[in-house]
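Posting for a labmate who doesn't have an account.
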Amino acid sequence: MHSTFYLLAMAALQGVTELFPISSLGHSILVPALAHWPLDREADWFLPFVVVLHLGTAAALLLYFRRDWIELIGGWLRARGGAGNEQARTLWLLVVGSVPAGLLGLLLAHRIRDLFGGFAFAAVALMINGVLLIAGDRLKNRRAATDLGRLGYVRALFVGAAQALALIPGFSRSGATLVAGLGVGLDYEAAARLSFLLATPIIAAAGLLEVPKLLHAQLPHGMLGAVLAAGLLSGICAWLSTWFLMRWFRGHEIRALRPFGVYCLAFGALALLLHR
């Protein structure tokens, strides 16, 4: 029961912070350390556990945006793989935007986390993430576009490449893509939609690549149920986070990122003060 509580707490933390622009990786380092959660990251079961959490988050995103994906794939099929309609072109924009972070993730993820995965670095990076979010609000154009289909391939590549910042603990994938989306002329809602659509294949691929390890993992007796429950909880929290954020960005025309930026600054500073 004791360990199950912490697994579920980690699942809720992952589900919320993966999509809020506040860095899931940074929080997964800071919160367990500050709260003294007894989680052994070096244990054989920990990686399979994280895989299940990511698959839960990806499933939630697919479920929430299922109509978007059906329309995009349907448009691509009608265009026979070309960019003959708006849906097909948008899907190709997502493909182009997913390439940079996908390649860098495959090549550099573990090296970057080994180099910059310390507590103090994650706290400082989280504060820098907060500054970027606050500064990102200034990029919002009064005549911002709402249509992803009008985004050029170079701009889509730029927004997708911004996801690579999330390889560094403390920087947020959704935060980076939201700011980049505002920078290329999208409004808050369109930038959020692009951010979450881009996140879906990246998060799903990260989880699926580790599935073979999951299948061969030796989980402690009785832990399988807790791990699966954690994956479900992560998915529920991710779905609720997406639901909230899409409404938040739809209802705010100015300074929508500021509250998250202030939070990152405050929590990062507090973490540094409290950590011993």
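Reply:
Got it, the structure tokens are right above this. The chain has one domain: 2-274.
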